[in-house]
Amino acid sequence: MSIRETDIPALARGCAVLGTGGGGGVRAGSLAAARAVGEHGPVPLVRLAELSPDALVLPLSGIGAPTVSHEMIHSEDEPKRVAEEVERLFGRPPAAVMSSEIGGSNGVQPVAWAAWLGLPLLDADGMGRAFPEVQMVSMHVAGLPADLVIMSDVAGNVVTIRPVDGLWSERLARAVCVAAGSSALMADYVVTAERARGAVIEGTVTRALEIGRATEGAADPLAALAAELGAVRLITGKLTDVARRTTGGFVRGTATIEGTGDDRGRTLVLELQNENLVAVEDNQVRAMVPDLISVVDTETAAAVQTEDLRYGQRVTVLAWPCDPLWRTGKGLDTAGPRAFGYDLDYVPVEELAHG
Asked: 248 — alpha (psi -120 to 50), left (phi > 0) or beta?
């Protein structure tokens, strides 16, 4: 299978939904991917089992504040500089590109990065969604050492970091990112295909395509999307307040949705840190990380990223279960509510929905 230009709109829709508000808006990434595929041809989509055991997998993602990524757009140069540094360090070039996070633009732009590098794209990622911090990846949960981070920015700088663990990789990479203007391209957990087995979440590019295609031609796009996701509808209403600030390389804030129609009289508040982290109604948590919470347009079911939230938008908030890896002890320690500073015991969204 290959990713063709005609596949990119569906991939972008699916990645936007999986982005849970973060990962960067998909428009710029879609344009870059379409142009790259148009110039270089379709990008082969490969499974991990198709790579030789010693093949190097290059996980790539944009790091920084989504609000900044609109203005500091990655070019062909950044992935090439990162790949050259990988080849210098390992003595051989990478064999495949992998998205570090399938959510948002970070799920779409790897198509362009792979096309520019002349490499296949791995049907996998490190999150199954989007998360804001470097250590919040399946490779960290699986126990792989976070001993190498390579970053490149629009100014041409290349920074190689040798952190002692995942938490230090976040601190150091974030500092470099802020110095670069809160936007950079990053490779971390560069591993062989053999070491990647069981440490990455497989099939997520295909999953994003399935989600994106679920609403194509649907009479009721919202119902079609919710059914495809197996999602709980938390509220349908109007955005009445958005408080957002960019600080420390993140977008932080809250969004308030007042119910309309059958939900009139209800109010849902979303807590944001690049992604939608916690949904609260009447002081009761309705959904929380690591489960996925996505804001979508009520009419079209198109996902609305945190940087695009505006007063008066008619939206529906959907929530659905995360990959089982995130519900393990190490997974919750890494990306559960307490990892973001919330004094909450994790409860699965399906239990909250029926509780």
From this structure: left
C-alpha–C-alpha distance, residues 142 and 331, integer Å: 9
Summarize pLDDT for 238-296 with one digit per residue, the tens: 999 998 776 555 567 899 999 999 999 999 999 988 789 999 999 999 999 999 999 99
- Give burial (CB, 10 Å; 0-12/13-18/19+) of 29: buried
How many angstroms separate the CA atoms of 355 and 115, rounded? Answer: 47
Distance (Å, whole) CA 175 – CA 122: 29
Separate counts of helices (H) and strands (E) for the chain: 12, 17
Q: What angle do CA 26, 295, 316 make, to 5 degrees?
A: 135
Domains annotated for the chain, with CATH where assigned, are: 2-205 (3.40.1610.10), 220-353 (2.40.390.10)
The string of DSSP letters for 13-47 reads HHHHHHTTT-S--HHHHHHHHHHHHHHH-PEEEE-
| pLDDT value, residue 40 | 96
**Which of 26, 3, 42, 32 has the alpha carbon at shortest distance from 123?**
3
For residues 272 and 164, give the distance between their C-alpha atoms in angstroms, rounded to a whole number.
29
Query: Contact at 8 Å (CB) between 289 and 340?
Result: yes
Give me the sign of the Cα torsion angle 193, 161, 185, 86: negative
Angstrom distance (rounded) from CA 97 to CA 43 = 10
3-class state of residue 283 by DSSP:
coil
Q: How many residues does the chain have?
A: 355
